[in-house]
């Protein structure tokens, strides 16, 4: 009687073991098949981070790349990045510095300290402010690959997902520029139906050059140049961009009086919705 009970138990264990093995064998191909699909179904996301008086834009591509364009004026960018990224995601695949003013570069020093940065794009324009020099030294110490942007070009992130770099149109490497704003990298991002024009602090002189270049400037999402100042977002330029949404990255009660009311009215007259980081916080698409 006891022997039969032991045999029944043994058989039950064998059946459970076989079922377990069959389950694992079936689960492996199912996981193998669906996991890449789950990954590529992720959408493209753009976040204009609320970093006070400065610029910081995080793009997450459907291919799990994190692209950071500028880092704002201080370490506050770290908390803003952590709000957007998963807790385990500590990499910035591509860091872009549009131009070396403190309100764009200073936060990037902290980002290199706290995240794994794989690659950096910048123009190489000469500037001797401490934050910029510290950022450059840190990149060199950590052997992060640096790429000079010296002409319009395409940077591909995956199928139908890329940066169309429109400016600079000539090299600024080692050049002492009279106006650093006008050395800003200008790029149009295309991905999964999203289209955003990012102009750094480029002013009307660059806007005119871009218009004359014949480049397609139209974009549904437009980060206004130079924090909504009247040095940028000229009438002719914004007509060419013809955005649905315009983002002004700006700090509350800043000493520069940004943004300019005329720029806001100009955009609103065209039917563009204006979103300000000082009022709305981080703006996401
Ligand atoms: Zn700025």
Automatic annotation (TrEMBL):
It comes from Candidatus Falkowbacteria bacterium GW2011_GWE1_38_31. Keywords: Membrane, Transmembrane, Transmembrane helix. The keyword S-adenosyl-L-methionine does not apply. Signal peptide: none annotated. This is Competence-like protein. The keyword Signal does not apply. The chain crosses the membrane at residues 12-35. CDD domains: ComA-like_MBL-fold (cd07731). Pfam families: Lactamase_B. Residues 53-252 form the Metallo-beta-lactamase domain.
